[in-house]
């Protein structure tokens, strides 16, 4: 969602904020703005609709200078993406400025109340009312002959808000002070030497410091050149552990690739290795999940696993269902996190909750976690960001260690999630004694070979996908088919294509073709079929044979088939127009190999169509409000 960067220190503030906002562009936005103080001219604002370069043009024409300030990239919720609706927003006096990520649900009632008291509004946003609430609190104190500190006025104002918000506030009357408050969307505080930062995500400030506080819901930070004070919304001092971020800032750069997405596709071998590192022993065949406050006895008692996730993470969750049920023999139910709490789930303290989210701050997934906990379940988070909210509230965490993912369309985070789910499934199976030591060792040996096999695919398939893009970049529809664990990978392939190329694409279970999708097939419809197999697995061979029948259904209706098959499968080439080969591996891990060609195909088609691959329209990287 929206990007926020703030700075107080000795440096010229504008370059720091603009650089930080640029590093947060992956979150998606449609306008940008900055407010700066510290020169004796009060607070100066510059705003512009469109991309960050538009704001930079405004700053070039009308420069501003100072040593503290806040900046914002807005993803429109209330009000059109215009200059007047761009953040930051002022109060009536112009001396209080606010930036905001989230949605104030009761903003209309507050706006009517403030308007009745004489406040004049100039935007269509919900954010503007926050500045006016703060102004009202300070004016009320002044009427009584008192001076109210900015943080107290913010504290009283947020108590009147309902909804989700991360806000950052500065005032011309209290120079070199930034106040930040969080309830829902993420906010991090960066600790430097005589300088301090605030941002809505780590990459925005990672070039300046790796030492961060992650604010929790109900936290407020007062940031000055002398340090950071943390309190709750009632003013009580609190402590938060300083988190040391291990990501190299260079990881967040394109590194010679044309787009972040392509870079992140090619980083997948490293991400898989890092997710596996230190968690397996080939000597014993065991999986070790150290950050787990759930005992093996809890795992043995579990009657069910409830998984909740959104978007790409939901596809990983659905693949994880196959892994967990196959290995640990425990029922798994997968929900869209956005729907979970609205179906009034049945309490079951013996069920375990599993939440999957790249950012660890996805609003719907956090809500699902809290619902699970309220029903008596212990929860486990699979997350990519150390110290994120979902990890702090979980009873156990499996960090994916994929590193920063900048492209909106998730790639390496998805494959890292699949690997984390595989590790969890093996660990759970070992605790429940549903697989032998030899079976565990064999599975982990296959896992250790996975990064090399992904590297092989990237070398051989990238060019083939680029050729396919020349053929199919102008079609209007795609169909993706898969069976078993490969069905959620078909869903993911369709999602990647529609996200970044804007081609309508649909993923479907191959066995359901006769129940409707066959009506769509003609010579204009490309159909991507996941036809990989593990020849050592009887069920996999049976699935493969059934998938070949589905391919023949498509070709009989003149559909164009792009098949993903394992190396050495020469038979399938006689049935289809195009084959993308991947190496052999075990059935459950084929899901990781399957998705690599689908990512590359989507990428190259989007590039040929001239789409903004890293920042597709209408989408944000982290959905931090419902």
From TrEMBL:
Active site (UniProt): 2 (nucleophile), 621 (for fru-6p isomerization activity)
Keyword Transferase (UniProt): yes
UniProt catalytic activity: D-fructose 6-phosphate + L-glutamine = D-glucosamine 6-phosphate + L-glutamate
GO biological process: amino sugar biosynthetic process; carbohydrate metabolic process; fructose 6-phosphate metabolic process; protein N-linked glycosylation; UDP-N-acetylglucosamine metabolic process
Chief location bin: cytoplasm
GO cellular component, one term: cytosol
Cellular compartment(s): Cytoplasm
Gene3D superfamilies membership: Glucose-6-phosphate isomerase like protein, domain 1, Glutamine Phosphoribosylpyrophosphate, subunit 1, domain 1
UniProt keywords, alphabetically: Aminotransferase, Cytoplasm, Glutamine amidotransferase, Repeat, Transferase
Pfam families: GATase_6, SIS
Residue stretches making up the Glutamine amidotransferase type-2 domain: 2-226
Domain SIS intervals: 295-434, 468-616
Gene Ontology MF annotations: carbohydrate derivative binding; glutamine-fructose-6-phosphate transaminase (isomerizing) activity
Catalytic activity, EC: 2.6.1.16
Function: Catalyzes the first step in hexosamine metabolism, converting fructose-6P into glucosamine-6P using glutamine as a nitrogen source.
Assembly information from the UniProt record: Homodimer.
Protein name: Glutamine--fructose-6-phosphate aminotransferase [isomerizing]
Source organism (scientific name): Alloacidobacterium dinghuense
Lineage: Bacteria, Pseudomonadati, Acidobacteriota, Terriglobia, Terriglobales
């Amino acid at each position: 969602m929206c990007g926020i960067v703030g700075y107080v220190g000795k440096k010229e503030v504008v370059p720091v904020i603009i650089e930080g906002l640029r590093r947060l562009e992956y979150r998606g936005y449609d306008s940008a703005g900055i407010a700066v103080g510290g020169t004796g001219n009060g607070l100066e604002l510059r705003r512009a609709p469109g991309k960050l370069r538009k704001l930079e043009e405004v700053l070039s024409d009308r420069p501003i200078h100072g040593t503290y300030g806040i900046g914002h990239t807005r993803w429109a919720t209330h009000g059109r993406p215009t200059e007047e609706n761009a953040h930051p927003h002022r109060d009536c006096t112009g001396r209080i400025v606010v930036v905001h990520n989230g949605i104030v649900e009761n903003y209309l009632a507050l706006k009517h109340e403030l308007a009745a008291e004489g406040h004049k509004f100039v935007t269509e946003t919900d954010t503007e009312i926050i500045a006016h609430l703060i102004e009202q609190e300070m004016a009320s104190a002044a009427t009584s002959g008192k001076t109210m500190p900015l943080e107290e006025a913010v504290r009283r104002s947020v108590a009147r808000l309902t909804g989700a918000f991360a806000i950052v506030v500065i005032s011309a009357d209290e120079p070199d002070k930034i106040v930040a408050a969080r309830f829902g969307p993420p906010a991090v505080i960066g600790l430097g030497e005589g300088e301090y930062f605030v941002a809505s995500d780590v990459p925005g400030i990672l070039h300046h410091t790796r030492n961060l506080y992650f604010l929790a819901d109900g936290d407020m930070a007062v940031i000055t050149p002398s340090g950071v004070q943390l309190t709750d919304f009632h003013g009580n001092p609190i402590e938060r552990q300083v988190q040391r971020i291990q990501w190299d800032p260079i990881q967040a750069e394109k590194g010679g690739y044309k787009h972040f997405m392509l870079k992140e596709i090619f980083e997948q071998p490293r991400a898989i290795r890092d997710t596996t590192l230190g968690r397996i022993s080939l000597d014993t065949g065991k999986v070790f999940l150290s950050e787990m406050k759930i005992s093996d006895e809890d795992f043995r008692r579990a009657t069910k696993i409830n998984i909740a996730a959104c978007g790409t993470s939901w596809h990983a969750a659905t693949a994880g269902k196959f892994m967990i049920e196959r290995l640990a023999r425990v029922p798994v139910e997968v929900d869209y996190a956005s729907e979970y709490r609205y179906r009034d789930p049945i309490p079951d303290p013996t069920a375990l909750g599993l939440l999957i989210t790249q950012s660890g701050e996805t609003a719907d997934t956090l809500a699902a976690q809290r619902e699970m906990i309220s029903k008596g379940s212990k929860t486990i988070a699979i997350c990519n960001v150390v110290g994120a909210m979902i990890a702090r509230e979980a009873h156990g965490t499996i960090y994916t260690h994929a590193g920063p993912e900048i492209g909106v369309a998730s790639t390496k985070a998805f494959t890292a999630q699949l690997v984390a789910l595989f590790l969890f499934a093996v660990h759970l199976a070992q605790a429940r004694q549903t697989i032998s030591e030899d079976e565990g060792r064999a599975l982990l040996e296959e896992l250790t070979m996975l990064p090399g096999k992904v590297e092989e695919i990237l070398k051989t398939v990238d060019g083939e996908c680029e050729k396919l893009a020349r053929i199919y970049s102008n079609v209007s529809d795609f169909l993706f088919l898969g069976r078993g664990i490969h069905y959620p990978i078909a869903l993911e392939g369709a999602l990647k294509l529609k996200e970044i190329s804007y081609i309508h694409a649909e993923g479907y279970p191959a066995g359901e073709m006769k129940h409707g999708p066959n009506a769509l097939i003609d010579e204009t419809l490309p159909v991507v079929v996941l036809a990989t197999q593990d020849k050592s697995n009887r069920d996999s061979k049976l699935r493969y044979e059934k998938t070949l029948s589905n391919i023949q259904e498509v070709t009989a209706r003149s559909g164009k088939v792009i098949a993903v098959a394992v190396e050495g499968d020469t038979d399938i080439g006689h049935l289809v127009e195009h084959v993308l080969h991947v190496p052999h591996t075990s059935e459950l891990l084929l899901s990781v190999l399957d998705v690599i060609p689908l990512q590359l195909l989507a990428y190259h088609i989007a590039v040929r169509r001239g789409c903004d691959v890293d920042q597709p329209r209408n989408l944000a990287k982290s959905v931090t409000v419902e």
